[in-house]
Write a structure and sequence with these properties.
Blueprint lengths: L2 E7 L6 H14 L4 E4 L2 E3 L3 H9 L6 H4 L2 E3 L5 H7 L6 H12 L4 E5 L17 H8 L2 E8 L3 H11 L2 H4 L3 E6 L10 H5 L8 E4 L13 H9 L2
Parallel strand pairs: 1-5, 1-6, 2-5, 3-4, 6-7, 7-8
Helix pairs in contact: 1-2, 1-10, 5-6
C-alpha cells in the first residue's frame, strides 16, 4: 500500500523541514521511491526550496509547493490578502495524485496542527488533511521546558484512531535547558515510549546526514 507520513508540529519553526528532509534522504538511501511535499507555504518559500534540494530534481518546485502566499501570516490569512482561496478537496486531490507516482510520500504541514490553512466558511487545517489522507502523523516539537504540555495538547487534538498511529519527535534545542534530559521520560508516562524519538541538534548539510540517522529512520517507519 502507498504510505503517507504527515509531518506536523506543536508550533511553527520547530524543525519540521529539517526532519522532513532527513527522513526523505534516509528513505531514498534505502532505495525507497519516496518524495516530500510542502503543499502550502506562506511568508517565504525557503522550506519548499530546501525540500527541492533534498530530492535532487525528482519534482519541480511548484509540484512540491503548489500553493504559496507572500504574507508572513497563517496561510488562510495570507491567501485572503491575495484574494485567493484553497479548498481542502483541492489539496487532498493533489496529494493523492502524487501518491500514485511514489511508494512513500512525506507531507509537511504549515505551522502547528490546528493552524488554519484555507477554506471559506469552514476552514481546514493539518488535522483535516491527515484525516482525509489517512496519513501517519509525526509530531515534531523542540525538546525544552513546556514541551510535554505542548505535545500532549497536540496529540489530544488528533482523532483517537490517528493518535494511536502517531510518532513524537523531540528535537534538541540549540541551547538545551535542564528539562531536556527528562522530557522524554515524563512524556512516556502519557504516551508509549516506543513512539517517542529523541534527536540531537540537527543541521542540514549538503549530504543531509546526521549520526544515528539509520536508527532514527527505522524508528519512524516501525509500527
Amino acid at each position: 500500500m502507498k504510505q503517507v507520513y504527515f509531518i506536523t508540529g506543536t508550533d511553527t519553526g520547530v524543525g519540521k523541514t529539517v526532519l522532513t528532509c532527513l527522513f526523505l534522504k534516509g528513505l531514498r538511501a534505502r532505495g525507497v521511491n519516496a518524495v516530500a511535499l510542502k503543499p502550502i507555504c506562506s511568508g517565504g518559500r525557503g522550506d519548499a526550496r530546501t525540500i527541492f534540494s533534498a530530492i535532487n530534481g525528482a519534482l519541480a518546485l511548484d509540484e512540491i509547493n503548489p500553493w504559496y502566499f507572500r504574507a508572513p501570516l497563517a496561510p488562510l490569512l495570507a491567501a485572503r490578502e491575495e484574494n485567493r482561496k484553497i479548498e481542502l478537496a483541492q489539496v487532498v486531490a493533489r496529494i493523492r495524485a502524487m501518491r500514485k507516482r511514489f511508494d512513500l510520500l512525506i507531507v509537511e504541514g504549515a505551522g502547528g496542527l490546528l493552524s488554519p490553512l484555507g477554506g471559506n466558511a469552514a476552514e481546514f487545517n493539518s488535522r483535516d488533511l491527515i484525516s482525509a489522507l489517512r496519513a501517519k502523523p509525526v509530531v515534531v516539537a523542540p525538546n525544552r521546558l513546556g514541551v510535554v504540555n505542548h505535545v500532549l495538547l497536540t496529540l489530544d487534538a488528533l482523532p483517537k484512531n490517528l493518535r494511536s498511529r502517531a510518532k513524537v519527535v523531540l528535537m534538541a534545542a540549540r541551547k538545551p535547558d535542564s528539562s531536556a534530559a527528562t522530557n522524554g521520560k515524563l512524556l512516556a508516562e502519557f504516551f508509549p515510549l516506543e513512539r517517542i524519538i529523541l534527536l540531537p541538534r540537527l543541521k542540514l548539510t549538503r549530504t543531509f546526514q546526521f549520526p544515528g540517522m539509520t536508527r532514527s529512520i527505522g524508528a519512524l517507519l516501525s509500527e
